[in-house]
Design brief:
The protein has 305 residues and is of the alpha/beta class. It has three domains: 148 residues, P-loop containing nucleotide triphosphate hydrolases (Rossmann fold); 34 residues, no CATH class; 99 residues. The protein is built from 15 helices and nine strands. The strands form three sheets. The protein has a five-stranded parallel sheet with strand order 2-5-8-1-9. The protein has a two-stranded antiparallel sheet with strand order 3-4. It has a two-stranded antiparallel sheet with strand order 6-7. The longest helix is centred in the C-terminal third of the chain and has 16 residues. The model has no long low-confidence stretch (mean pLDDT 91).
C-alpha cells in the first residue's frame, strides 16, 4: 500500500524505525529534505554501514516498488537504460519479407516501436508502478562504474527523462525517489553531486550499534551484545585493510547466537573471525594474542562501567 511522504524530520525518523533502521537525526534530516524537495540522496561511506538498506527500507515502508541498478565496471546504456530487442526485430523483418508486406518505411516505424524496447532500470524508474506512485530507484555503488557512465545519469538526475533517438524523449510524470550509494573507491564527478543532497554514512557509535543489534538480533543476550559492540568498536581503531561494518557486526552476532554463546572467549573469537573480517591478512593480524588482549580490555572496560 502506497504511503505518503513524511512531512517532518520526526516522521522520517519514525519511517526508518518502522523499517527497523536505526538512524540518527542528521541522517533523518538529509532524507527528509531529499524526499520533500524531490532531490536524489547521495550516500557515501565504507561498505557495510547501511547505505543500501535505506533504499530497501523506503521501498518497504512507503509501499513503493524498488528498482535497483547494481553498478559495475563497463556498465553502459544498453544495460542501464534501454536496448532494442534485436532478435524479435529480425523475426518481424523475416515475417514481413515472407508475407510480402515488406515496406521499408512502415517496417522501420514498427520495429522501432515501444513493443520492441527492452527497458532497463533507469528507464523503468521513470514509470509509475501499479499503485500509480513513482518507484524507489537505487543506483548502488556508483563508484564501481567507469567515469563516462556518469554522463548518462545527468539527463535523468536533472530532468528525470531519457532521450531515445528512435522514439523521442520519455519523461517521468512524477520523479522517482532516488538513492545513490558510493563506497568511495574513486571520486564521483561534481556534476552528479550537485544534483543531489549529500550525506556521509559513518560507522555508528557504540550506543547506536548496540541499538541496531537489539533491532536486528533481538535473540542475542545483552551481555554478549555489549561485548560484541565493544570488541568491534576496538577493531575499528586498528590498522586493518577492511574494517568491519555494521553488516559484519550483525553477521557475527547471529553466528554467535547460533553457537549458543552468552559470553565471548578467545577461542570463540578466533574460530569466528571469518564472519567479522574478510581478508586473511586482517585475520592473521588479529587472531591469537591480539584478539585475547582486545577481549580482555573490552571485558575490563565493561566491568568498570
Amino acid at each position: 500500500m502506497d504511503k505518503k511522504i513524511p512531512q517532518s524530520i520526526e516522521d522520517t525518523a519514525t519511517l526508518l524505525s518502522d523499517g527497523k533502521y536505526v538512524s540518527d537525526r542528521s541522517l533523518a534530516t538529509a532524507l527528509f529534505l531529499s524526499l520533500k524537495l524531490g532531490r536524489p540522496l547521495f550516500l557515501e561511506g565504507e561498505a557495510g554501514v547501511g547505505k543500501t538498506e535505506i533504499a530497501k527500507v523506503l521501498s518497504s515502508t512507503l509501499g513503493r516498488r524498488l528498482i535497483r541498478l547494481q553498478c559495475y565496471e563497463g556498465l553502459d546504456v544498453a544495460s542501464a537504460v534501454y536496448e532494442w530487442n534485436y532478435s524479435r526485430q529480425m523475426i518481424d523483418i523475416r515475417i514481413s519479407e515472407a508475407t510480402g508486406q515488406h515496406n521499408k518505411e512502415s517496417l522501420g516505424k514498427t520495429i522501432f516501436s515501444e513493443e520492441f524496447l527492452i527497458k532497463r532500470p533507469l528507464l523503468e524508474a521513470l514509470e509509475p508502478d501499479v499503485t500509480g506512485a513513482p518507484p524507489v530507484l537505487l543506483i548502488d555503488e556508483l563508484d564501481r562504474t567507469d567515469e563516462p557512465f556518469e554522463a548518462f545519469l545527468l539527463e535523468i538526475l536533472s530532468d528525470f527523462q531519457v532521450t531515445i533517438p528512435e522514439l523521442g524523449t520519455i519523461s517521468a510524470e512524477e520523479p522517482p525517489i532516488v538513492i545513490i550509494t558510493s563506497n568511495r573507491t574513486r571520486e564521483i564527478h561534481d556534476a552528479i553531486k550537485r544534483r543531489c543532497f549529500y550525506y556521509w554514512v559513518d560507522y555508528p557509535s557504540a550506543e547506536r550499534e548496540l541499538a541496531i543489534l537489539k533491532v536486528k538480533c533481538p535473540s542475542a543476550p545483552e551481555q554478549i551484545s555489549n561485548q560484541i559492540v565493544a570488541f568491534v568498536q576496538s577493531l575499528r581503531q586498528k590498522d586493518l585493510f577492511k574494517l568491519p561494518g555494521v553488516a559484519e557486526t550483525i553477521d557475527w552476532t547471529n553466528a554467535l547466537v547460533q553457537l549458543d554463546r552468552i559470553d565471548l572467549d578467545p577461542q570463540t573469537v578466533n574460530d569466528t573471525l571469518g564472519t567479522l573480517l574478510k581478508y586473511q591478512d586482517d585475520i592473521e593480524k588479529i587472531k591469537g594474542s591480539e584478539a585475547a588482549n582486545l577481549l580482555e580490555k573490552v571485558k575490563a572496560d565493561l566491568a568498570a562501567r
